[in-house]
Amino acid sequence: MLPSTNIRFTFKQAVLQIFFMNSSKAHGQYRLNVVDQVIHIKYTGSFNEEGFNAFRDGVRDRLYQHNLGQKAWGTIDDISDWKLSVPETAGPIRSSVIDSVRVNRRYIALVDSKQGLARELFLSYIRDIDGLECRVFTDEADAWDWYRELGLVEREPEQASAPGASTANQ
Q: For the whole prediction, is pTM greater than 0.85?
């Protein structure tokens, strides 16, 4: 028989304990691929602050690795499988986008095949940022066509091959 203790946890305390033990683990997955002057980003899952920080660092690495900040560049942000993010990420996401505009990010092609709440949340993060043009697409091929029209993409996305061009965060 185990010795008895005077420590008792309510169900709520137990849930909070489990949450705080796991809260520092990064949540949210992403995949990055660079094609000419475009970073293609595929989001999946739900992001917490640690997950967003890992994502931001991955984008920053690609930016410098491919010298994208030297002239206008853009992103294709595919949020079709994104499951939103915790409220604490709103400020850092917006700040990160503002910082990216300072290094010549001029365009966002937002791809959302489901046309749901994720789209409204994403757009709220980037609303009214000077120097940034955002277009919304339901099909990724249309986003690539827009970047071809802008002259930011010459190669086909399948032909892009850069060392470490794809990264996943789990």
A: no
